[in-house]
Recover the amino acids of this structure.
């Protein structure tokens, strides 16, 4: 799966699905165009050929129907993995997600767990036309009963997807479209635990808290800051629910300053939760308020304007600069 | 032949193959008039034991509805959506299923759930406000009573499909399962109903959809719900078989549904059955039906009460005498008494259960919240209760 | 509409709809059971009789269809007011809301504004069975393009609903079910402006920030605190989007301590946004972190347990106590 | 008769009135074979001017598709979903509408939108990535190109209903509007399609649904999308009229759609037209169609290219000679040249526009964000550009 140029995120996800299909006959994939086409991003490339069109099922074009069918399959004991074609096209399935997927275990006192994985390509930066670049993580993170994870590295693409499929919880697995074609040298093979954040770069002066598509941007910002003598720590949350308070708070306490970076609209976004809970838990360690660098509070713009919307290095460094260094 | 194959006819003449083959429409269209047994010659051919069994279950079901409604009025249930007038559908739905089949009920289908073997108070746990689902869905092969309309139809298709997948790998493993999804006339307007039927048709899943067309979705009459000739006419649009039955004619519903279940089980595809019926009670114990329907209409339907129709037939055919009726009535009273007793015994749920089943393992966030609640409860237990207004107690 | 016992919230909303229907022939109501029945909460009682079943239209049972139809009506120049029967039953319309209602003005460069009002009864505390007590405000508040308002008083029930219907923006109008039968003495008649919070009770020691169903609880908490010598200010946000930073920040700066109270699940809820933005803007005035008292991060519980879920006076006072008075 | 009334037959025999009256199903069912004109006797009766007009528009449309596809390959458009092979549907859809009627297109219906009078580059603004909708929907009575599938069908119903409401109050006010919703075969599986048809039937709204059944939803063939005999058979389930037409036969589509629009306009109810067609190109310029279909299949359909079929007829009937064809081709080349020129002139959108139309009045939050962006832009303008990698420029 990995060439000289390394393994791409798409390949890592593909390998994770293949390994899961091989190891567990209960794993079934379903979604739009995941069979012969291999998915519009080719994440399921070759899987119908290897496992048959039953285990890699091209469904009718109806997202609530797809997720509702997966719920029924899971009730019978299967382990469905659903592909939603794009973020905004998961919205028709919102009722099935919020009222059934998230609640079934709880409403049946644990008797009907739903080990369903819902893969959703999300976010912008790929020149997509409207409805193809939404960041919808806050909707899911706010819905109790769901786990919500998002890889930012190729290794985590493999590891978190394996963990999601193996999990007895329903997991919303958000795939950063922008990182589909990023690549790493070593083919990933290890399962990554759900619920653990990881420090991607140590730093002493301030901490960037981020996830998914914004991790590379934060690492570039840290690089740039370092050139100017500021050492920024960078934390990759990986799992939005459950949230790893321990790792996050330790990283923030160590620097006393923090900026949250994500690409979805800021208002009532995931960054608000991160900022609020870090402040609740680390208030007396903070030399400055936790700031947020996020997408704008507007509908996602057309491709020629999206660079103004996405958090970039400059905006991150601006926020870091506003962390009141004079104190 | 894969499990996805279905009976098809050649494609549309003159079109290359990508658009076909397509099915023939005629066999999918429903009968012009609802199937009836009672009052027809067919009635004489039905097994008398089946008729008596149906009758007994109708009487018990009616009494269950009455008692539950009373309990709701008295405040022991938060609410109760009675199926009085629809008992024939409820009972038949459960009777045509094997133990290994699955039922997907709505909030109104309490009788069908009870007929699967669930204890009355466990059926009513949702309405008691005690827990969201009082029974083990896997044990009774019965999904939780579904409140979000039509959503359960998709689950039924998925479960039926999964069973076929398992059956393909393990033919003798008891996986020749049929899923029966119950739905109301109003529910057929929801997108999820459409998507369920689309998937059922394409997957050729062994699923039966029973639409209990009781003429109303709360206050909205069928004429404002759908302009279709009948709801059974929707089936052809998904390549599945449509059937129309008199939902107040218990042996007719039993026969049509039974045939539908066997049709599905044998791999001939899903069936949509529309049963024309009427709810004689209000939508729920909290509803005021006089706002939207006349007493004349209700009376006209009372004359077609499924219990009356069946009792009249049994009496006429000499299959039920006063003693038989008394025995059935006594059993119904016993059921009602047991419901009252169970309610009197009812416990309060343990607040710690709030956190037990949100996830397979509680998150650290939930552990914190559970600990905080436990501390508050311990506090309350140790301090003398201060007089609180009801509003404050709630808040 | 108002008897000796005063005007109820239901009556105020009913009057607002009636007045809007009378004044503007373009106003049309549509929803499930809003005609002969008058809605399950009777908010549209008598309106079909007065304005006909066309202007108070009983629709088929299909929420996406209802909202999508309203979008089309608004495109032709009408001013539809949609009733969703319960919070969780608005989820099927989520795609229409997020991808069309919220975006139509923006994607057409202002040429197709959608003056649609979407009334949604929300929240718990009324003994409703599952799916009848969700607090969904965070989903809407996080969706750019929507205004999101919620009245906590009878007067605002009237005033904000009139403003919502008159607005050229799509407005999600959240009606606190718990307050439907609360009543006030004077019949409301004035339009309340969207986007303005209001201080419901002055206070010097700490500020409670809340909205909708939690306002009365906060006022009771302030009452109780006052008895113990602590004066709590109480701010009723009324409008979640647009957010009244000015009023809120002024109230927080004045006390230096704040607690946000709402009934939806806390994680990534509206309270996170409030806490985060108040902290960003008032950090150096804060003697303690902004705390949150919210619903638990679990699916809404069955009626017999809901009092453990809902923020109550005790939990609010506990949070106030944790605001580090020793400083 | 209110505007909600529809043709109905008495209710189901023996049922009280709450369930009826119901429609007769037979007139709602589609024809057994798609309607055809070309190659039949009817072809000789069609107005030659109409045929020539159709031809001219097909040629222009084909060229538009080719040029736009080329622009996408060259990177001037983000993507282009070509309707090559479906031009007959596109053109007829726009031609049967009056100026006061409304069109509700999908992303693929660029030709229909252009035929409403929108300038080519404004049609393509969405795909250029310049703005979400390049034209004024009110001016052209054309909704934005809809990407979320089937959602626009609901809007069409609402708009048609609103027009009827206005017409009731103001009969001479030009409100006898018909809404035409375009949709693909895949889109018919979405819940919104079902809900739109349900509403259309119940409201008896003057709306026509044209399903361009091109055999595929991206890679998924019709046989995996629906098990229905034809998609037009779905209509009966909503009490609306279903029609089936050969979508590659331009005069046939024009005739059937024209009749459907007048059916709807005259208050006789909505119509669902299924046009059987094929997209000869890939799903979009970014798609690889060889993954899911054979070249034999494509070639079989190429033989039924709507342009070829019409040209053959015109030639055979002596309605088109070489000079005529040359004139049409020249016009098409002119269109293509103007598209290339327009792209070359294309400006970059103003970032300040990001905030202009989110709300009627910007919120204080948006004013802050707009000011911050303006400051950043001013900064960038005043500092010499530092070399940035493309990735960094994007981030
Ligand atoms: C998605 C959704 N929307 C709205 C409701 C509110 N609601 C509960 S029952 C009901 C009417 C259902 O009518 P029908 O399907 O005919 O079933 P019946 O009650 O007649 O058995 C409505 C609108 C709901 N439960 N779910
Ligand atoms: C709600 C939704 N789900 C998924 C998609 C992604 N998608 C775009 S086009 C397409 C196929 C549509 O097929 P069809 O309706 O037959 O139209 P065609 O492309 O053939 O014209 C899909 C799945 C979408 N746009 N909207
Ligand atoms: Mg009903
Ligand atoms: Mg298609």
């Amino acid at each position: 799966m990995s060439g000289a140029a390394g393994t791409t995120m798409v390949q890592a996800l593909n390998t994770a699905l293949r390994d899961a299909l091989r190891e567990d006959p209960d794993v079934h994939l379903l979604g739009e165009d995941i069979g012969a086409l291999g998915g519009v991003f080719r994440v399921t490339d070759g899987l119908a050929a290897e496992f048959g069109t039953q285990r890699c099922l091209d469904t009718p074009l109806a997202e609530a129907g797809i997720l509702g069918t997966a719920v029924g399959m899971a009730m019978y004991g299967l382990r469905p993995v659903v592909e939603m074609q794009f973020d905004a096209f998961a919205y028709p399935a919102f009722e099935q997600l919020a009222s059934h997927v998230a609640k079934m275990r709880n409403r049946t006192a644990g008797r009907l767990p739903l080990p369903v994985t819902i893969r959703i390509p999300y976010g912008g930066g790929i020149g997509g036309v409207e409805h193809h670049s939404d960041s919808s993580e806050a909707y899911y993170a706010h819905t109790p009963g769901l786990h919500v994870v998002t890889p930012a590295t190729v290794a985590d693409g493999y590891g978190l997807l394996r963990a999601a499929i193996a999990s007895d919880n329903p997991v919303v697995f958000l795939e950063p479209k922008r990182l589909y074609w990023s690549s790493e040298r070593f083919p990933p093979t290890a399962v990554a635990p759900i619920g653990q954040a990881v420090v991607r770069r140590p730093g002493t002066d301030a901490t960037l808290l981020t996830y998914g598509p914004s991790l590379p941007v934060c690492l570039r910002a840290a690089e740039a800051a370092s050139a100017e003598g500021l050492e920024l720590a960078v934390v990759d949350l990986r799992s939005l629910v459950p949230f790893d308070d321990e790792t996050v708070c330790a990283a923030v306490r160590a620097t006393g300053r923090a900026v949250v970076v994500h690409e979805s609209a800021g208002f009532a976004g995931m960054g608000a939760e991160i900022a609020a809970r870090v402040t609740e838990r680390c208030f007396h360690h903070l030399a400055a308020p936790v700031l947020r660098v996020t997408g704008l509070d507007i509908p996602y713009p057309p491709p020629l304007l999206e660079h103004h919307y996405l958090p970039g290095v400059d905006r991150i460094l601006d926020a870091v600069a506003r962390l009141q260094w004079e104190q | 032949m894969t499990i996805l194959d279905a009976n098809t006819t050649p494609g549309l003449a003159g079109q290359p193959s990508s658009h076909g083959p397509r099915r023939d429409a005629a066999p999918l269209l429903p009968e012009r008039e609802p199937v009836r047994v009672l009052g027809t010659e067919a009635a004489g051919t039905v097994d008398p034991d089946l008729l008596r069994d149906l009758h007994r279950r109708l009487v018990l079901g009616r009494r269950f509805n009455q008692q539950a409604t009373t309990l709701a009025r008295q405040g022991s249930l938060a609410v109760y959506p009675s199926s009085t007038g629809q008992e024939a559908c409820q009972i038949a739905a459960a009777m045509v299923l094997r133990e290994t089949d699955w039922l997907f009920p709505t909030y109104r289908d309490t009788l069908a759930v009870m007929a699967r073997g669930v204890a009355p108070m466990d059926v009513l746990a949702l309405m008691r406000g005690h827990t969201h689902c009082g029974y083990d869905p896997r044990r009774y092969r019965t999904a939780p009573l579904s409140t979000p309309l039509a959503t359960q139809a998709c689950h039924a298709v998925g479960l039926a499909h999964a069973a076929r997948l398992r059956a393909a790998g393990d033919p003798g493993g008891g996986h020749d399962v049929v899923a029966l999804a119950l739905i109301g006339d109003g529910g057929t307007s929801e997108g999820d109903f459409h998507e369920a039927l689309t998937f059922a048709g394409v997957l050729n899943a062994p699923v039966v959809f029973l639409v209990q067309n009781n003429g109303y979705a709360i206050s909205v009459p069928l004429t404002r719900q759908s302009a279709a000739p009948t709801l059974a006419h929707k089936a052809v649009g998904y390549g599945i078989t449509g059937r129309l039955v008199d939902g107040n004619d218990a042996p007719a519903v039993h026969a049509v549904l039974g045939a539908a279940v066997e049709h599905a089980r044998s791999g001939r595809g899903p069936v949509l059955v529309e049963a024309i019926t009427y709810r004689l009670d209000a939508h729920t114990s909290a509803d005021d039906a006089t706002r939207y329907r006349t007493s004349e209409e209700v009376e006209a339907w009372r004359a077609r009460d499924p219990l009356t129709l069946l009792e009249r037939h049994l009496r006429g055919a000499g299959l039920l005498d006063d003693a038989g009726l008394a025995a059935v009535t006594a059993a119904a009273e016993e059921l009602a008494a047991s419901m009252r007793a169970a309610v009197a015994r009812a416990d309060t749920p343990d607040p710690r259960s709030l956190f037990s089943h949100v996830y397979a393992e509680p998150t650290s966030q939930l552990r914190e919240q559970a600990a905080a609640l436990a501390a508050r409860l311990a506090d309350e237990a140790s301090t003398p209760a201060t007089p609180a207004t009801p509003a404050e107690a709630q808040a």
User: Anything to note?
Assistant: Residues 351-382 of chain B form one domain. Chain B has a mean pLDDT of 92. Chain B is about 45% helix and 10% strand. Chain B has two domains: 24-344, 351-382.
